[in-house]
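Two folds, back to back.
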Amino acid sequence: MAIAIRDVREHELDSVLALNNAAGPTILILDSNRIRWFFDNADYFRVAEVEGHIAGFLMAMREGSDYDSPNYRWFCERYAAFAYIDRIVIAKPYRGLGLGRIFYADATSFSEVRVPVLSCEVFLEPRDDVSVLFHGTYGFNEVGQQIMPGLGKRVSLLAKDLPSFDFVRSTYLDGPTGQLPNQPWLAQRKRQGSAAPRRAAGGL
């Protein structure tokens, strides 16, 4: 079974929206305007394609966005530079195949050359032990909790240090060129809502 992780395409937004809204109670419902906002503004928005079908997606934001998520804002208030995983969804027929770990490995690879911290949250009410265990075994630690405004549900705020970023920063971002090498796997997706490409967080 061939699996491709790639940037989402505009014509796939309706399929991604349907997948999101069928995911269950731990994934907040979106509408067409909101999914379009993510397409225009997310720093990382990739899908898993399996035999021509969208099997899942992951969206992540860096610091400095006007995203109004209370969990994202929590990290903005405490971290100068980070990547925040807003949501990951795997379609039911493709669960149990390891796509979650593939996505997180890809998101980590994307993040560790740009920022020192990868962050996210998991619901504690109702407690999702599968998600808690998954994140714990992937190197995340709880750095706080909060009750989500409007939902009244407690979440655990998680962060994972990305030690490779120190090497990337000293060698490239603070080096002679001040930027990453020009390689396809290092490319930043072109965000429709931004006139200029996002730079890595050098000089912290």
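---
second:
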Amino acid sequence: MSEIWQKPEIIDWTQNLLNSYEKLLKKALIARKSDLEEQAKTLFFAPFVVASHGIEKDPIFNYGNQTTLDLWEISWENLLKTPSRKTVKDNLSEAERAKMLLQAKEKGFIDHYQGIRITSKGKLFKINNAIVWNITNHQGTYLGQAATFSEWEFLS
């Protein structure tokens, strides 16, 4: 059985994530000197969160690296069944979240985002300086949104 990051669809998705990030933010998310599978492995084991969701009406996660899985205390299989809104603490209104996602969609990305999130086991944590960006393929087709951050703190 292959590792998550070795699956062809994850290697392809990793390229969409990395290419979109570079195009919008004019910098690389990770070093990209290696082959595509090695890039997928590097992103999957990066010491910062990278998570993404698709374009469903109620967007569902379609990627989360190992840091994401550990932070959210969730398995890969369960992450892929989770609407991204389920990881947002209730005190962030749906209207505020929708406004943030729309702003990212219109501009291409937002940075310095912060908010309260909740793990699958109910622990609250605050994220700081997150970047949310649109994911597109080589043809420019919109595929969803991703987020990355390396600053978080658990709340009591």
